Every structure is written in C-alpha cells, then in structure tokens.
Amino acid sequence: MSPDHSRSLTVLPTRPTLHAGQALDCYLEHAADANHIPPATVMRAVTDATDTTRYLLLRPTPRTLEVLSGLTGQSTASLTAATLAAVDGTLIDLSGLDPHHQASYRTVAARGWAPGQGTQACPRCLAETGTWDISWRLTTSTVCLRHGSYLLSTCPGCQRPFRATRSTLLRPIGAKTRCGNALGRRGHYCPTDLAALPVEAADPGCVDRQTRTQAQFPAMRAPRVFGEDTTARQFLEDVHGLTTLLLHIATISPGLPSGWAAQVHDATHARHRAPRWGLRLPADIPTRSRALTTATDILTSSDLEEAVTRFTPWAEEIPHTPDGLLGWAADHTRHTAGTTRLIMATHAPRRRLSRLLDTTPPLRVSTRQIPQVLPRTLYEAHLVGLFTSRAKTIRLFASLSMARTHPGITTWADAARALELPADLGSRCAAAAVASQTAAPSTVLAAITAAAGRLEGHDYRALEDQVRALTASTSWFTSWARRDRPGTRAASHPLAMQWLWTRVAHAHPAVAPHADPARARRFAATLTPEQQTSLRHAFEPRIPSHRPGDPVSTSSPAMSADAANKNLLD
Prior knowledge:
Blueprint: H1 3-6, H2 24-34, H3 39-49, H4 62-72, H5 76-81, H6 105-110, H7 123-128, E1 143-144, E2 149-150, H8 204-214, H9 232-252, H10 259-268, H11 285-299, H12 304-315, H13 324-331, H14 337-347, H15 353-358, H16 376-382, H17 391-404, H18 412-418, H19 423-435, H20 441-453, H21 460-470, H22 475-484, H23 493-503, H24 517-526, H25 529-539, H26 561-565
Helix pairs in contact: 2-3, 8-11, 9-10, 9-11, 10-11, 12-14, 16-20, 17-18, 17-19, 18-19, 23-24
C-alpha cells in the first residue's frame, strides 16, 4: 500500500486477537502481517489520524487510543493494557509525563530506572508464541515466569538492545522473531534468530521475587513490608531506595559474601566515577535480578527485627566517615518510608549504650577513681576502631561512661558533674561520640570495662587539687629545671603545670588552671623522654590514693561552662 493509500486506512480488514500482556507494538506488527501490509503503513495511518504517537508504549493519548480502537477493533482498555500505562503507580511511576511535550520524559527519567530504548526478551516465549510482552520493557522485570529463566537484554548479533528503533515504533521486518535492528545501510537488518538464543535458568529466589511483584500484572498487589500492609507505589519506592543502597555498598566493598555483590564490585571498582545506581540498574540481567531480590527479601521480612538482621551484614560494610552510617546512607540513596525505618532501626543499637551503662554495676569503687580523660595508653589498647571521632573525644566519653554506671548518675550531664566537668561538656561529648559509634553497644561496653579495670587506684579529684595547689609555688619547678632541664625559663612553669594536668592527672584541658593549649603542646614536644620521666617523678610522691568510703565528688568545676566550650573536644 502506498503512502497515499495509508491516509484512507481507518479499519483493518483482518483483526488478530490482542493477547493479555502482549505489547502494543508487537500487536500492531502482527496486525500488519495479518493484513499483508507494511508495518510502516499501519504506523503512518495512526500518526496521520491522531494528535501524537510520542511515548505510545508509555502513555498513549486518548485520541490515539480511539484511533487504534477503530483501526483494530480492540477496546481502549485492552489497548491501554498493552502499554506501561496499565501499571502506572504500581510497577512504574509515569506522573508528569505528557506525550505532547517531549521534554516531560525527563521528569520520569530523573526518578531512575525508567524504560529506555529497546526492550528485554525471553527467547523461549518468542519461539512458542512469537509475541513480545509489555512487561519486558520494565527494568525491574528480569525473569520469565513462564519458563523460569532470566530475560535477555542485548542481541548477540548487533550488540544492541532488542527493538532499538529510533525513527519508528514498528520494525520493518514485521512480526518475525529475528532481531531486525538496522545495521547502518538502508534495507539491512540484523538477521539473528532471537527464538534460538540460549537462556540461563533463574535462581529460585529471583523467580519468587518476580512472582511476588509481578504475577498479578497488570493489577499488581503489593507485598507486605516488615509484616505490614503497604501500597504498590510505596513498595516500588522502597525497593528502589534499598536496591540502590545495596548496589552502592557492593561497589565499594569487596568483602560481601553475596556473589552478585562481588560481581558489581569487580565490574565497577576500576571506574573513575561511581555508577549512579539510583538512575540505572546493572546491565547484566542476572546481577540486576539478584540485587533486586536481595532488597525485596529484606523488605518483605516478617517483621522489622528480621529485616535488620538481614541488612546488618550490609550496613557493617558501610565505610566509617565523619557523617557516620546515617550520613553515608543519605548520600547514596533516596530515603523512603521503608528504607528510613530499616536504616534507623539498624543504627539504633549503636545508640543504646546508655541503657546498658544504666544497668551495669559501677566500674570503679568511686567516681573519684575515674580520670576526667581516659589515659591514651588505655584508649589505644581497648577503644581504637570503635568510633570515628577523634581520640580526645572518645577518651573523655570513656570516662563519662564509667561515671554513668554509678547510682544516681542517669544523664551525661550528671556524669560530667561527677567528674567536676561542665554539664554541657558531657552532653555534647556523648552526642558526638554516639553519632560516630561503629561497634555494637556490647562491644563498646566490654572495651570500656576492660579499660576501667586497668586504671590505677588514684584519687583523681585529689590529684587535680594537688596540681592546682602547685601553681602557687615555683620552687619545685626551679629545682627540677636546674637539675634536668638547664636553661628553662621560670615563665615555663605554667606550661609544666599544664603538662602535669593532662599527662599525669589525666584531667580535661578545658578546666585546667593554666589554659594555653597551644603553648603547652609546644612545650611538651620539646621534652625528652628522660625529662618527662623526671617531671612525672617530681610530682608523683604527692599523688594521693583513694581511701575506701570516700564520698563521690559532685562539686562544680572551677572554670565556667563557657570557657570549657571553647576547648570542647571534637
């Protein structure tokens, strides 16, 4: 039929049956073959009679549906079911798409995982029925439920997606099961027989996942998330968010036990730019399917606790950053209702250390036996790697935690006051430490308990008082300097006091009697190991030990909270 005759083509003499699930473009090719007319003629007739055929397989306009209904004799509802508009709001989100405005597709594409050029295919289905399913165009469709095999996405002959046509919706070769992609020269098309291509059997888990999410196509019923009812749209968003997060974790972590995660890591670790998994899924169908299955299995757990158990091995691979687990996750996925609950529940145990401390027997006889700042040697022996905050913050936090185990101390502010520190210093230090916690609460408690057991039995409050008392006398310092550090000026006396305050009394620099941390650090850097030992020995005979039965000190610090805030750790 010539182009002129196509303008009068309003009804097809032969009208084949439109099968359930059959894609609209596939049906029109079969209709053209049944009437022995070129597919281009059918498409031209539709184009001439309607307002637009843009995005025909996504959301046809009402006018286009009327024209197609008159041409093929099919109802508009049946024709709509042959497009992805049938699952809008369930398996795909097409909100914002206007076929009359080509740029409107950017709204759909920006959400990620949008159908691109071409489609996937099941060779066995093509061999048996010769029809293409509309569901194959969904990026989340990875398994043929009829044959239990993975779909294919690329023709091995031309190395392009199936049905990758730009200028026309219908293939010039019609309904044949050959590839039919244009090969560059006019009239030359890829001859690969798609019905003869080998397929790979799908994992049982992938088949089950596809069944749960698509068996009711096009009227999908959403699975339950964490044992609770949800909507299909919300479930789609949850799967998108969690799968994206898992793919990003797999990209940066080689240690995950999942086979598909290792494949993702090996395929992407050499790239200069990380893949944007929120916009595009892995090209390899089995890998894509297994990633979606892992996310779906986590979301469809019987309850939130089971989901956390399944997700925890992945969360443990998230790198330690200043923003912590929550910050890293926020940067690598779009939070949804389900993913937010899961991530917060996984992170919550890291925040329950205070509850364990409240039920733990006192780690020291008295809070006077707890230094304001844990000695560095004990920090390095027990607490390294359990937090991402600086050592100074965690050393203070460890001492506060020891104080929290004493009766009557129920807040971090109370713990700070018990150590004669400003109350808000304790609250803010605890907030910074807990936010950077990377280990389980039980692990942190065990480490703090071990450190507490190795503390010397000093009365640290009396030790701090002794350092303060020495600030009024310089005779001992002059004797030490004359003997062990000739040439030291008398003006260095406050710097030596600062060194004793932080290195021997293990007190916080924010409440030091001489607060000049910069000069004190320079002075400490010039001390030789021998001079440090002699300076310590010059002071240690004055160190008092705690006497059993001494009351817990709850006095306020000598320095104001405002002054301490200037030197707040971290």
